[in-house]
Amino acid sequence: MTGGNGNGRYRAGETVTVVANDSDEDEFVRWTIVSGNPNFSEINSPVTTLTMPAEDVEIDAVFGACGTTYQERGESLLALFEEVSGGAAFQGRTAQFLAADWLINEDELSLCPGENDKKIIQRYILVVFYFSTQGDDWIECNRNDITCGNNANDFEGQSPYLSANNECEWAGSSCDPDKCIQSIIFEEENNVNGILPQELGYLEGLQIISLETQLLGGRIPANLSKAKRLRIIDFDFNALTGSIPEELYTLPSLEQLDLNNNKLTGSISDNIEQLTSLIFIQLQNNELTGTLPDGLIAIPLLVAEFQGNLFVGDMPLCIGAPGQTIGALATDCGSASGSPITCGEDCGCECF
Question: Rounded CA gap, 98 and 180, in Å?
């Protein structure tokens, strides 16, 4: 036997007492039969008896967290993560693979599947965010930053990522009383690079995500639309590419869409009129094209900036127009830009 006492030679039918070794780190889980067919009186007890069959027997004492073996716990956690990311995401050393590996094998919290799976998924998503944005290269509050949270730090009072603390205490995070992530806010120039993972959209309570003046590339995750409580998206001064995801126009609570100074292409969808809470939009200094949709006048915009793009046609917004709330408006309507946008007379456009 392995992991206990009771080794010996016994006659068939003899009752054998087996005792699992004490472990300071892990609790006894159960006995596992490796070979033979003994009859246990209680296979889940660290002290038990078995009836010896007429054959050799080999048994192991199994120890592990969460009342399961290490392998079983790992398999259960991986199955949970696959529900969010899909199985293909773990092929190779992806951010998802690295996050799962850390949570299963390194995380000091040793989370147990089944106890609070929503919070496990939340922690997983933030770890994916860390690896997807090259967290080890962050200037402040990467997992090796022993100064994170001190008075001179942008994340005063918070903990470095991948610490043993609850993820609500990690740098840039804030939570509601139920410890659900409400915001992810990083100060400027923290060398947050790489790409934004689609898993961020599964943070059900997320209201604010602000990662301005970083080095992010790739596309804006369409899955952000799943976070229906989002009020602020601020990704300005990065290197994001592709078009504005159509799915973002379905966010009912979005108040601020701040995407200026990126490398975005494509046009503004007519479905922008669905953003019935939007009051602030900054899209300047991208590579956006097409006309500005008439649906802009259907939303309660106060500030809108469109300059430094390739828009053409008429500006539907007009400061002071009946039914419009716009109070600050900027676009390419000046001589320096070749005046591709035509603003109405006395509409208050700031022309570039």
Answer: 23
The single residue listed with the structure tokens 């990662």 is 211
Amino acid, single-letter form, for residue 97: F
pLDDT band per the 50, 70, 90 thresholds, residue 25:
low
Section 85-113 average pLDDT: 95
List, for residues 142-196, the tens digit of each pLDDT value.
Answer: 999 999 998 777 899 999 999 999 999 999 999 999 999 999 999 899 999 999 9
Window from 106-115, 212-221, 289-298 with minimum mean pLDDT: 106-115
Q: Which two tokens stand for residue 185?
A: 């806010």
Cα dist. 21→1, 7, 9, 30, 206 in Å?
11, 13, 20, 12, 46
Written as one string, the DSSP assignment of 9-72 is ---TT-EEEEEEPP-SSS-EEEEEEEES--EES-TTSSEEEEE--SS--EEEEEE-GGGS-HHH
> pTM value?
0.85
Alpha helices by DSSP H, listed for the chain, are 70-85, 95-105, 117-132
Q: What angle do CA 148, 182, 146 make, to 5 degrees?
A: 10
Distance CA 220, CA 35 (A): 54
Placement of tokens 């969460």 in the chain:
66
Q: How far is CA 310 from CA 19, 35, 157, 267, 337, in A?
A: 77, 73, 44, 9, 9
Strand partners, 159: 170
